[in-house]
Structure formats: structure tokens, C-alpha cells
């Protein structure tokens, strides 16, 4: 099981900028690969997993800007790196789409060392994580994966963090939540790309619905 390895685009320590855990010091593990294709995605450099962009771990660790380069690393090696380089004890696994991969082996080694795990996912793949991992689903409605995969991700979600640009995005979320098992997950609206109109709409809707607002605080702060 621990022969697993993951395509790593980035590993860095910062403050969780989004969602319920905003403000928590966190290690971010960004995995390479995502076929979903959201037009407004802020991490398009993680979409393609190209063999000819595979580099050594040391090259990934010294990155200073976004790039399509990635390296293959096993769970134990990721853990050792985190323990030697960072002080945060909350690991956020993001991407790309991290649920393209079985994340159980990663959860297992990190949780055995006392780390908490959070996974950021689009709900377009089955969520393979430990029972105690915090799952943030940012649903990509009408994209790949299909409704049954999305419904089971919503069912597992601890938090639903919905990207919002227009009223249509809120209507789609309403449709998704109707009759969904994810009723106890916390719902947050996240304005797309800090656009003023999206932010105003998200604020108004959150107040009306008693939902949370998730702004990408790291972008306002100019941190990673
Ligand atoms: C880059 S995605 C990676 C994880 C996974 N693929 C997903 O979509 O949840 C991480 C988070 O950033 C959000 N996001 C991506 N681009 C954004 C943008 N331009 N504005 C606001 N949120 C964005 C996603 O919806 C998701 O909640
Ligand atoms: N600070 C910070 N917080 C984040 N929360 C979710 C992020 C992501 O890209 O998944 C992210 C990110 O890229 N940076
Ligand atoms: S699912 Fe996530 S990583 Fe993939 S395109 Fe959409 S926002 Fe970007
Ligand atoms: Mg981000």
C-alpha cells in the first residue's frame, strides 16, 4: 500500500487562505493533474501531467514561480520533508485534482505522526481519504465525473465551498443541495477571482441564507 507515489507540483508552508480553516498555518501539497477544465481556474499549470515535465524532487522544492514541472514522491518521503522543513501540523492536499489519486496512504502516514489532513476537491472523482480527513468539496457542476460521483463527494464533505460568479452559480448549488445527503456540511460561497460583482453577490447571499463567506484571503495578503 505504501508503494504509492504522487505527482507533486508544489510543497510549501503558508496560512490556509480559504474556507472554514482560514487562518490555520498549513503545509500545502499540490498534486499535478486535472482534466476538469474550469475556465476561471487559478492553477492551470497543474492540469497536464506530462512525462517530459517530470523532474527531480530538488527541482520542485526550489521553485519560485508557477510551473508545469512535477516530481514523483512517496508518502513517507513527503512526510519526512514536512517534518524536517515545516512547523505546521495541518496538511492541505490540493492540486490539480488530488482525488484522481488514492490519498489513503498519505493520510495514514501523516495521521500516524499527529498531523490533521484537509483535502480540496472538485467532487469529480471518488474521494479516497481517511475517515478523519477534512474534506472540502468545491463542486464542479456539469463538468466531468457525473452526478453520482459528485453526490457521493457531497455526502462525504465536511465543507462545501462553492465558487460563485453569477446568480446561475447559486441556482446550480441549490439544485445540488436539494435532497442531498450533504445537508450537515458547512456551506460557503467563494467569489471567483476576487471580482467585485461576485463578491457583492456572495456577501448578499451568505447573509440571506446564513452561509459562510470564503474569500481567498491569501490573494488579498499577497502570500502564496
Ligand atoms: C485550484 S482548486 C484545486 C482543488 C480541486 N481541483 C478543486 O477544484 O477543488 C482549489 C480551490 O480553488 C478554487 N478556485 C480555483 N480558481 C479560483 C478562482 N479563480 N477564484 C476563486 N476560487 C478559485 C477552487 O474552486 C477550489 O476551491
Ligand atoms: N494560502 C492558500 N490557501 C489556499 N486554500 C486553498 C488553496 C488551493 O489552491 O487549493 C490555497 C492556496 O493556494 N493558498
Ligand atoms: S477542478 Fe480545480 S484544479 Fe481542476 S480546473 Fe477546476 S478549479 Fe482548477
Ligand atoms: Mg490556490
UniProtKB/TrEMBL annotation:
Its cofactor is [4Fe-4S] cluster; S-adenosyl-L-methionine; Mg(2+). Mg(2+) binds at residue 43. Residues 21-224 form the Radical SAM core domain. It comes from the Bacteria. Pathway: Purine metabolism; 7-cyano-7-deazaguanine biosynthesis. Binds 1 [4Fe-4S] cluster. The cluster is coordinated with 3 cysteines and an exchangeable S-adenosyl-L-methionine. Binds 1 S-adenosyl-L-methionine per subunit. Substrate binds at residues 15-17, 30, 94. S-adenosyl-L-methionine binds at residues 40-42, 96, 138-140. It catalyses: 6-carboxy-5,6,7,8-tetrahydropterin + H(+) = 7-carboxy-7-carbaguanine + NH4(+). GO terms for molecular function: 4 iron, 4 sulfur cluster binding; carbon-nitrogen lyase activity; magnesium ion binding; S-adenosyl-L-methionine binding. Its EC number is 4.3.99.3. GO terms for biological process: tRNA queuosine(34) biosynthetic process. [4Fe-4S] cluster binds at residues 34, 38, 41. Keywords: 4Fe-4S, Iron, Iron-sulfur, Lyase, Magnesium, Metal-binding, Queuosine biosynthesis, S-adenosyl-L-methionine. Homodimer. Belongs to the radical SAM superfamily. 7-carboxy-7-deazaguanine synthase family. Catalyzes the complex heterocyclic radical-mediated conversion of 6-carboxy-5,6,7,8-tetrahydropterin (CPH4) to 7-carboxy-7-deazaguanine (CDG), a step common to the biosynthetic pathways of all 7-deazapurine-containing compounds. This is 7-carboxy-7-deazaguanine synthase. It comes from Ferrimonas balearica (strain DSM 9799 / CCM 4581 / KCTC 23876 / PAT). The gene is queE.
